[in-house]
Design brief:
This protein is α/β, with parallel strands linked by helices. The chain has a domain of 156 residues. It has a 5-stranded mixed sheet with strand order 2-5-6-7-8, with helices on both faces. The radius of gyration is 21 Å and the shape is globular.
């Protein structure tokens, strides 16, 4: 039986695949989500950030060394987490495959297959608790004294997406029967573009960029997830396009949906 993904078909017998990012898209703007998943309208997409993907890959290699040894990474020890080890589980590599919804659970009330791909999991062997870990990359500003890179926080409209991502992955792992600690961790690498002389090596064709690394803890809350999935299905079953979001966009989160004008033009021509 073919996978049920893309445009939602209510009569399709297979569970409909809904990724973590699609749930976020629905929460950002129900109208955009409805047009995409109920009507199959494709919007211009953002290109992938390959440098971010590269840093994720390298960080995973760092922790994979200690996953095999079942020892705490020195980075974890420096941050008071020497009691944790990178989780070694037979399904771990599958969980990291976002395009295949490697981390997934069936939401029976909607017959939706909810999933995504996580970056890492740390494990407390004594309590058997797991901690969801997400890798993030940026190149930040200098601090007010111009002496170091500005400390990263989880404050800001677009950082809410990161928090919901953590909430979602904790929820999925709990649905799969794991003992998940509410504390999640962001391993944040911050490219240093201010305090280094440059990046080119003088005698070989190589370049090196240095990063500050920060560990940010987050007390997750997955209480919203179940209702969001139910609301998402109600949205898909609507005959008419919902209203587009009036806020939540732009650096301060005070702008309306970026596709608002397009919506209005399509309505004027009877396309939605």
């Amino acid at each position: 039986m073919a996978r049920h993904r893309g445009v939602y078909k209510p009569d399709h017998p297979e569970p409909y695949e809904v990724s973590r990012s699609q749930i976020q898209n629905f929460m950002n703007c129900p109208a955009c989500f409805w047009m995409s998943r109920a009507k199959g309208i494709k919007f211009p997409g953002m290109p992938g950030f390959l440098l971010n993907t590269a840093t994720d890959t390298l960080l995973k290699k760092d922790f994979d060394k200690y996953r095999e040894l079942q020892q705490s990474h020195p980075f974890m020890e420096r941050h008071g987490l020497g009691h944790l080890v990178p989780y070694k589980h037979e399904d771990f590599e599958t969980w990291t495959k976002s395009l295949q919804l490697g981390l997934r659970t069936l939401h029976e009330p909607t017959n939706f297959l909810i999933g995504g791909g996580l970056d890492d999991v740390w494990h407390d062997p004594k309590t058997d608790e797991i901690f969801i870990v997400d890798y993030k990359s940026t190149a930040g500003r200098r601090n007010e004294d111009l002496t170091a890179l500005q400390e990263i926080s989880l404050v800001g409209p677009y950082k809410e997406t990161y928090k919901r991502q953590m909430d979602m992955y904790q929820w999925i792992m709990r649905q799969n029967g794991f003992n998940v600690n509410k504390t999640g961790y962001f391993v944040y690498v911050n490219g240093d573009q201010h305090f280094e002389d440059g990046m080119l090596e003088e005698d070989i064709d190589k370049a090196y960029m240095k990063f500050d690394v920060q560990l940010i803890s987050y007390e997750a809350d997955d209480s919203w997830v179940n209702q969001a999935i139910l609301d998402l299905k109600d949205c898909l079953l609507q005959n008419n396009c919902p209203e587009h979001a009036q806020s939540g966009f732009g650096p301060k989160g005070d702008k309306q949906c970026e596709q608002a004008q397009l919506f209005e033009g399509m309505k004027e021509h009877g396309l939605i």
